[in-house]
Amino acid sequence: MSERRRNFLRLAMPWLAIAILLVIWEVACIVFDLPEILLPRPTRVFEVFFARFDILLLFCWQTLWTSLIGFLIAIAGGLLLGLAIGASPFVYSGLYPLLIAFNAVPKVALVPILMIWVGVGALPAVVTAFVISFFPIVVNVATGLATIEPEMRDVLRSLGASHLEILTKVGIPRAMPYLFASLKVAITLAFIGSVISETVGGNRGIGFLMLSAGARNDAPTTFAGLFAIAIMGVLMYAVCALVEKRMTRWAFRGEIVG
Known about the structure:
The chain is 82% helix and 0% strand. The protein is mainly α. The chain has two domains: 1-34; 42-251, MetI-like fold, CATH 1.10.3720.10. The chain is globular and about 75 Å long. 32% of the residues are buried.
């Protein structure tokens, strides 16, 4: 198989899988005569999606910027704390158990508390997006620093390198692939956090729109909102993947060709 054909198939496979899924969905709705309130057909969802595109775009914009702000704050805080945890065993022993305990708390339970503290609106969505995307960044950065072999540390120390030099010249570059791997996960979690906040106690955003549509038994609009969230998540994931390839090109290996 030629390289060009292989690349074409690699690009076409996701679209083919989506098309097959939508066809199965459409056929199942027709064959089993499912009511629209239970499961609308994809053609009906797309019809509503394009008919109410301006409304969906307005609510999506609210969800997008709250998710991105929370995500950017999570990058800054997660990178700093991950470096501290990975660089110091004392910080690791003191903070890592607390992080695990905090991550075990269902984030939906935090939204009512945030509403009491900061009120209803965009701020609880930003904070929820930050909280839910913070943990994977911290863990992956700390893990990346922990991958420095003890033998390499010993060699660098024998050459006169200080702990800070080992951290900045070896540890941080070693942690970069782990960081970007966590960012691709964290950006999708940020959207989840924003939508959770919007559905529990928001007054704007795509989560609020879906909740309002559900209260009216408007299933097509609810599914159109789901499609919009999926599109935003995939696009932001693609942006993170593109930045990853540009920033950590050295970490990619050639694929094994069968």
